[in-house]
Every structure is written in structure tokens, then in C-alpha cells.
Design a protein that fits this description.
This protein is α+β, with helices and mostly antiparallel strands. About 20% of the residues lie in helices and about 35% in strands. The chain contains two helices and eight strands; from the N terminus they run H-E-E-E-H-E-E-E-E-E. Strands 1, 2, 3, 4, 5, 6, 7 and 8 form an eight-stranded antiparallel beta sheet that branches. A hairpin with a 6-residue loop joins strand 6 and strand 7. It is globular. The protein starts with 6 loop residues before the first helix and ends in an 11-residue tail after the last strand.
Length: about 150
């Protein structure tokens, strides 16, 4: 974990990576890219038990890519998988309960992750859910709310 990383820097870098992932999809198939302007913080702790002394968090956000109606999402998600095959990310591929393809790009060194799947906003969309690298939140900053 980078002890000097701020939540603002983590958010900016994560949003930039979301747009880089979205750019893998050919522009002529995209009608709109909608990036959430704000996100929330999630604990980077080893457990889900609340620990008042634990101040490590990750910023979470997302981007939705809207496609020309009728565009199949699975080949586009596979293209993202292929694009990141030899990168710093480990790629995990699975299917959601309803059978749609989902990939996860995970950087174990800093616990950064991106989950890309089809159909989150209907049949003509691809969604990216993001989790920034971990950072320490200053004690004077409340972890609730939006960032």
C-alpha cells in the first residue's frame, strides 16, 4: 500500500482506468459513456468487522457503457479480457447467476480491482465497477458518505 496515496488521487487514478477499459470497446458501437462522478469508501481491512483503529480504505465507483441496441456484449467483454491478458492484472472470468459473462481485473499488490459485466443497465450496456488501490484515510475524515 502506498502510504502517501490520498483518496482524491486513488479516485482520480481509478476513474482514469475505468475510461481506459471503456476505450477498448470500439467507439462506433458506443452511444454513451456514463461515469459516476462520486463513489463511496470501502474498508481494506482483512475482516468485515468494524475496527475503529483501521483507517485503510479503497474508493469504489463505476462507469456504464451504453451500446448501439442489439450489440452483443460478450465479444466486447472478451476483448477487454484479451487486452489485459499480459498486464499487471490477474484476470478472473466467470458467469453471473443469470448466465452473463463477467471478468475481474485484479492487482493483488495493491488490491485494485475492476469488475466488467454485461446487462447491469439492460441488454445494451456494459458496466465497470471499480475498487481503487488501498490508502490511509486521515483521522479527521469521516469514511461515510460520498467521495
Amino acid at each position: 500500500m502506498d502510504k502517501n496515496l490520498t483518496w482524491q488521487e486513488a479516485k482520480a487514478a481509478t476513474q482514469k482506468k475505468e475510461l481506459e477499459i471503456a476505450a477498448v470497446i470500439p467507439h462506433d458501437l458506443v452511444t454513451k459513456i456514463d461515469q459516476l462522478p462520486k463513489g463511496t469508501l470501502m474498508s481494506c481491512g482483512q475482516t468485515q468487522v468494524y475496527d475503529e483503529d483501521e483507517r485503510t480504505y479503497k474508493w469504489t465507483g463505476g462507469t456504464d457503457i451504453f451500446l448501439i441496441p442489439g450489440t452483443p456484449q460478450e465479444p466486447l467483454i472478451r476483448a477487454i479480457e484479451e487486452h489485459y491478458k499480459d498486464s499487471r492484472f490477474t484476470t478472473i472470468v466467470d458467469r453471473r447467476l443469470e448466465g452473463t459473462l463477467r471478468i475481474q481485473l485484479y492487482d493483488e499488490a495493491n488490491r485494485e480491482a475492476y469488475v466488467i459485466g454485461s446487462g447491469f443497465n439492460g441488454p445494451d450496456s456494459v458496466s465497470i465497477t471499480s475498487y481503487s488501490p488501498c490508502f490511509e484515510l486521515p483521522e479527521e475524515t469521516w469514511s461515510g458518505g460520498t467521495f
